[in-house]
Amino acid sequence: MYETKLRTHTCGELKKSSDGQNVVLAGWVKKKRDHGEIVFIDLRDRYGVTQVIIEKERRDLKEQVKNVRGEFVLQVSGKVRKRPLDMVNEEIATGEIEVVADKIEILNESEVPPFEIKDDLNVQEELRLKYRYLDLRRNTLKETIIARHKTIQSMRTFLSENGFLEIETPVLTRNTPEGARDYLVPSRNHIGKFYSMAQSPQLYKQLLMVAGFDRYYQFARCFRDEDMRSDRQPEFTQIDIEMSFVDEEDVYRITEGLMKKVFHDVISYELDTPFLRLTYKEAMERYGSDKPDLRYGCEINDITDIVKGSGFGVFENADFTFAYNTKQSLSRKQIDEYNDVAKKYGLPGLFYVKYTEGELKGSIVKYLGEISKEKLIERLDILSGNTIFIASGKWKRTLETLGACRRKTGNDFYIEGRGNEYNFLWITRFPMFEWNEDEEKWEPCHHIFTMPLDEDIKFIESDPGKVHGKLYDLVCNGVEISSGSIRAFKKDIQERIMNVIGLSNEEAEKRFGFLIEGFKYGAPPHGGIAPGLDRLIMIMLNRDNIRDVIAFPKSLQASGIMEDSPSEVDDRRLTELGLKLIKKKGS
RNA sequence: GGGGUCGUAGUUCAGUUUUGGUCAGAACGCAGGCCUGUCACGCCUGAAGUCGCGAGUUCGAAUCUCGUCGGCCCCGCCA
Predict the structure, then answer these.
(1) What's the Å distance between residue A84 CA and nucleotide B71 C1'?
(2) pTM
């Protein structure tokens, strides 16, 4: 396989049936085991590991490899030999054979690497990032990168077979102030002006619909100058999809088909389709999240009706009181951790109730009558030993807080060892607008080219908070994999939406005039979706960090640890660009 | 922008509070030697640290104080 001038076989393919063959292998020294009379060398490449043996009479070879150690690059010529039965290594694919060395060429030496190249590695990530090319030699990371390739390959096949065209769009584009901060690129030809690195190909793909390419996709690199998280990178990849003459159902069907195929091709997992659907409201009220993990229960319940009238101030003054049952017996210390979570999400704290010895216990129990207690026990399905959390306040914040607590319960008790379950669902019926308290104005929840639900269009002016968009998110195991929408392709709807959020015609013209202009010439009804490739692979391979699925990722401070980016540049370059630094670090 | 946490041989860590002083330690790796069958080879010997960096307190700082840099995690932000 993959024979070249320097090798006849890879280090992963020789089998019992290769016995007696003369072969040439090339690879890295994984391990040398020198027994004096006899020497073993495990040779590693992308495909596997093969044991090379230098026999006792080959003093010349032994002398030659005297100084060889891990990560030297060798070319070994020799004969494949079946190992004696009791010498077979069942751990590796080539464990039934070994190659008896006849000739060894040291293709390159290696310094002692800063960390060992082995699978069960425990090294500070900073060091792994600095020597990423060494980290990538390890199986775990290597397999991820291979899986990433397979994912892309599988998607290309599926989309191409379904009539989608792969079309590239510019990375260097213009600033569109909505949404995330974008990376700016100063222009040498236009002093004082800047390109923006595309946050996504959103506007281009919609114009491709105007152009008549009714099924488009692209593996689009997206750039966002925002703060990192364990699932966010400043540059990441979306599998950007847009279709014409469709409604939500068409997008769901294609996306479900795509996921089904990818999971089958990459990890041999058969997804059930169609995926479950929840409205945004339902997801929030039952799970406290617009991206709930449905691998476990712990559903939130509205208990406002039970606690109103209890006389307890917090309950009386709050819009809503919600609760969920952890179905666990938590210690005082554990409960404190939940209080910390609540504080982080802006609630003063949580109440908890424990059911022990046939009695509800907790600070708020004294406010509840017998009937209320019984209702509570029934509604939350409380069993002996259960700890229940209760929170009061405004709808969204209270639910989000309990949602964060529920997530903690899940992490602590329910999802351990269940990374190989995949619980996909669609979240639908998102609100179109959100009221910004600080600026006292309506803001779009998604982006402004979203089509409202037909039945809500009449509320656009009178009651924007009541308008839902043709918006959908694809969620799996508590992670937002993707979001998309059916677009507002007609001028009148667009203008009504812009009016709600206080965007004047001139302003809109300035920001995305080219899109509005394009929409004048027969824009077809269209919509799309853009699954995040990195997150999808994270979920599929059960990794909890996005850096693990990217060959050369950035650190949390958006630095390239290996290449030491970003870097300062010569003053000459700045001058050329008409730029001058205001502050320079260390000056 | 805010909060948390970590930083000690090449690597992973112990030592840091109660107690500032026999506190520069282990394992792996590395180097030298021995060893027909290992695959986490084994045995013997050895080298190896600006305790992230800087300042301060002190007779004395890995240990206490302040600052700073970097990694990771979270909130804000962000599809």
Answers:
(1) 48
(2) 0.92
